[in-house]
Amino acid sequence: MSVLETPATSAAPTSGGDEGGPGSLLPVIREIPAEAYANPTWKGLAYFARDLVFYGLVLWGLAVTDNPIFLVVLWAVSAVVVSGLFVIGHDAAHEALFSSKRLNSIVGHLAFIPSLHVYEAWVLGHNRIHHGHTVRQGMDFVWHPITVDQWAAMTRLQRARHRLEWSWLGSGPYYLREIWWNKMITFEPPAKWRKGIRRDQLFLAVAAGLVVVGAGALGWAAYGSALGVAWMIVKLVVVPFLGFNVMIGWVVHVHHIAPDIRWWPRRQWTKFHGQMEGTTILRVPLGLNLFFHWIFVHVPHHVDMRIPCYGLNCAAEAIKGAYPDVVIDEKLRFRDYLRNTRACKLYDFDDGRWMTYAEARRELAAASATSAA
Questions:
Q1: Where are the domains of the chain?
Q2: What is d(CA 332, CA 280) in angstroms, rounded to the nearest whole number?
Q3: In the chain, which stretches have pLDDT less than 70?
Q4: For position 6, what pLDDT does the model report?
Q5: 283 to each of 3, 45, 51, 87, how far by Cα in Å?
Q6: Please, are residues 114 and 215 in contact by the beta-carbon 8 Å criterion?
Q7: pLDDT tens digits for 244-263?
Q8: How far is residue 27's CA from residue 215's CA, in Å, rounded to a whole number?
Q9: What is the rounded average pLDDT for all residues in the chain?
């Protein structure tokens, strides 16, 4: 099955259910200290409340100004703030934020509203598929690379889309189409998950409708015209949502796409390959963690999804101490993202290497010449 057709229907056990066979994560999990898993209710609620305050302040700023400079700054901040709430919802969806499953569900549903994500669809696609099959050919749909043969079979329009989405400008268009639209909104859920996902899609539609009505009411009060209503909705809802897609698409890209991160054929893949070698620990300025909640410390999160965001550093130190030659731990630098987007276009699963478009053209030309001879 082509990755472009892979549905979010597969299921895999969480890392916590690893039984210790070849490529097991159980030895890694045993290195993680118990304190990394501590998730008192007050702490999760405090992070959620703090992010709600940030979000409210940004919305207030956007509502009261039409100054172009202020708007651009506030829209940039809104993308980060919505991403912060999304990370809180992401932790809740992993049932890591609280010990209570019900409280995780309530907070997760609410935290996902600004990013317009369907909670149960995210649990299926992210927890079960992405975490269950990280960097596995034909299984992990998140930034899954295509092969030279798949590239050759594409139409010009499909190639143009691929060039955009795999460029340094492509994180937003990619995430918006491939993750949000295809895996949140339009996909057909498997029977086992259909009821829960349809229910949450309805919840999100109602919540989003109320948000739009509220923004429209503010627009009418501020401008007294239909154009003013539309403008307020764009300012408060549409642009922050689009900015979030750019931000979170970039975050996911730097976690799993780099010349030294290998993607594995299905039968060669193991949990150790996927979760220990298929992602990174990226060190960011402290101010960025104020919003992103240590999500860039990604290796321990993939080793065991039950670790709350504020326990990831503790777990990372233990894992690095036990596996210093495996864990990728480096500074987050934008120039590395630029390098990765130039080098990582297509993938050769047989040789385990990334390819540029130029390399793919040379390979196709050589194959054509061999065939003609």
A1: 3-372
A2: 10
A3: 1-22, 372-373
A4: 38
A5: 31, 25, 22, 17
A6: no
A7: 999 999 999 999 999 999 99
A8: 51
A9: 92
